[in-house]
Structures are given as structure tokens and as C-alpha cells.
Amino acid sequence: MRPQKVLDKEILNGLTKIFRSRGYEGASLKELSDATGLKKQVFTIGFLTVNKRWQTLF
């Protein structure tokens, strides 16, 4: 199965929404996953690769 494409803007909007409402420490992986459309594994296993991409957004 081919990975679903998620736009950077959608990711940023989803993360912003969760972090503003729950704070960094209060946000769960499930909430981040649901808000962005990304799988939870992206936030754990693939974080270093994704982090480089996100750095360009901030």
C-alpha cells in the first residue's frame, strides 16, 4: 500500500492545535497522530527524519 500524502501545512496546523490546547507535556501520541494524519510511529521511530523537515517550517 502506498503511503498517504500529508501536506506540511496540515501537519503544522494539527500540531499547533494540539500543543496550544494541551501543551507539549500534555499532548499524547494518539492526539498528535489523529490531528496530523500521521501514524504514531512517525513520532517515535521516524522522528529524526521528520524533525529535519519540520525545522524548515518553524
Taken as a percent bin, the fraction of beta residues is under 5%
| Structural category | mainly alpha
| CATH topology term | Arc Repressor Mutant, subunit A
Shape: globular
Tally of individual helices = 4
Number of domains: 1
Q: What is the CATH class designation? A: Mainly Alpha
Second rung of CATH, namely the architecture: Orthogonal Bundle
Overview of the molecule:
This protein is mainly α and 58 residues long. The chain has one domain (8-55): Arc Repressor Mutant, subunit A (Orthogonal Bundle). 64% of the residues lie in helices and 0% in strands. It is built from 4 helices and no strands. It is globular, with a radius of gyration of 11 Å. The protein starts with 7 loop residues before the first helix and ends with a helix. The model has no long low-confidence stretch (mean pLDDT 79).
In brief:
The protein has a single domain, classed as Homeodomain-like (Arc Repressor Mutant, subunit A). The radius of gyration is 11 Å and the shape is globular. The protein has 58 residues and is mostly helical.
Feature tags:
single chain; about 60 residues; mainly alpha; Arc Repressor Mutant, subunit A; 4 helices; about 65% helix; about 0% strand; globular
Write the layout of secondary structure elements.
Layout: H1 8-22, H2 29-36, H3 40-44, H4 47-55
Helix pairs in contact: 1-2
